[in-house]
Amino acid sequence: xxxxxxxxxxxxxxxxxxxxxxxxxxxxxxxxxxxxxxxxxxxxxxxxxxxxxxxxxxxxxxxxxxxxxxxxxxxxxxxxxxxxxxxxxxxxxxxxxxxxxxxxxxxxxxxxxxxxxxxxxxxxxxxxxxxxxxxxxxxxxxxxxxxxxxxxxxxxxxxxxxxxxxxxxxxxxxxxxxxxxxxxxxxxxxxxxxxxxxxxxxxxxxxxxxxxxxxxxxxxxxxxxxxxxxxxxxxxxxxxxxxxxxxxxxxxxxxxxxxxxxxxxxxxxxxxxxxxxxxxxxxxxxxxxxxxxxxxxxxxxxxxxxxxxxxxxxxxxxxxxxxxxxxxxxxxxxxxxxxxxxxxxxxxxxxxxxxxxxxxxxxxxxxxxxxxxxxxxxxxxxxx
Amino acid sequence: xxxxxxxxxxxxxxxxxxxxxxxxxxxxxxxxxxxxxxxxxxxxxxxxxxxxxxxxxxxxxxxxxxxxxxxxxxxxxxxxxxxxxxxxxxxxxxxxxxxxxxxxxxxxxxxxxxxxxxxxxxxxxxxxxxxxxxxxxxxxxxxxxxxxxxxxxxxxxxxxxxxxxxxxxx
Lengths: 384, 170
Ligand SMILES: NC(=O)c1ccc[n+]([C@@H]2O[C@H](COP(=O)([O-])OP(=O)(O)OC[C@H]3O[C@@H](n4cnc5c(N)ncnc54)[C@H](O)[C@@H]3O)[C@@H](O)[C@H]2O)c1
Ligand SMILES: [Zn+2]
Ligand SMILES: [Zn+2]
Prior knowledge:
A: 2 domains; binds zinc ion; oxidoreductase (chain A); zinc ion binding (chain A); ADH_Zn_CS (chain A); oxidoreductase activity (chain A)
């Protein structure tokens, strides 16, 4: 079968790989029909996640058709069209039992701090991902969800990560009616977070990014105020001034380790890896939120340390919440929102690329060329 | 969560134990749906254990493998040796993450050697997606090429300079 193959920082290609096999009685094999590239994949692509092995296949946002099931799979049958949450989750451990499906303790031997994630390095369990024609899906009774009849496959594929992550970003903000919410990042995740902030009753939503085309998009889509931080001297001061000198009630970091905007952070975090990614957005979030405010972190950072103003965090009496999204916990509600037309995820998809052109798709998304917001890869066997 | 009354006798000797307990003071809501198993440790009914047919490294912060794991690209070669070394250290240690990052870089070279061994010359330009750069950002590509040429020329000149100097000395 064809699969994306990671060769080193900035280098990926398409190769033939052996078909995945059932390795556990609760496994299923899924034939992929759509698979996205995510901002999270860029941390791998740039070589910033330790234990990203050459020869790995990425891809944690995919939908497809069940081709084969293991003897203990009873919730799915061959031929089912499924959307597969990006978390590998057992459903039985202490954390899954509490609805923390992004923190499963039975899916990632390599690290205890993070649960298993499809196609996300050995630090997240060493699974091959869905940027391929076929993929092994463990715990098939737990994660995979049959796509409701009539749902657009583009909406379905965004329900595997982007929609729940944007939603959880807003949820973790503990937004109270009328709150001013600042979102750093106008990628798919930040855009969705800005959109969802309204669902929790925000009174004002303000987004920051460096790309005009993304700002323009989110301004109409959320809808919200949107500003280019490249044109602002000091984003923190800018936010203070526009919030009656108080700061935002809630700040959301939807950027993570690839942040731009501060030379010091970029050099130490992205160029030399002295810290676990550039923490510019997190730094701005802590300094621009109101005293007693809340920081919600969905941006992904590496496993070591970051430079953030923790002293201000304490002095200002802040609360910080973050997590890998618990996709399964949120799916019932979000499927409803999509079906009722409250959310329109597929509007985010700007690029449809044959899986064979995966290298170009990564480059375009990584460099934000051609006004790219969200690329989706279509394997040649998608219409078989 | 065990309730306050159940626990109270155990802590009867501690004056004031639990008098200010406030179940509403829970910043984890609604991300975490608390069960009564908060303090019961590693005691759940575990899923069937996947059998490891390939080498799978595991964090030393856990007793063994998880019930399910990925089996892609097991550790091999020099990068594999570095990864095995790294896993002697906990996730809290630089001894874990720095060797892993080093292993990742070594692995890139191993990947190129593997390609050659299989009679394949990796098309690094294609892998880097330069076709799309050419299509959507021709100016950027031109700049990159110019910079690369300039740096290469600089390095060559430097090496030459060194060589002629060392020749002079000889
Ligand atoms: N927690 C989770 O479960 C989860 C799930 C999916 C994605 N993520 C993470 O969310 C983040 C965003 O993902 P995405 O797909 O939207 O990525 P993306 O690369 O498309 O978007 C990131 C955006 O942030 C902007 N940006 C850079 N520096 C900034 C700064 N200092 N301030 C404001 N904006 C800045 C970039 O210009 C870009 O538009 C990534 O870190 C990704 O790993 C987390
Ligand atoms: Zn993702
Ligand atoms: Zn679990």
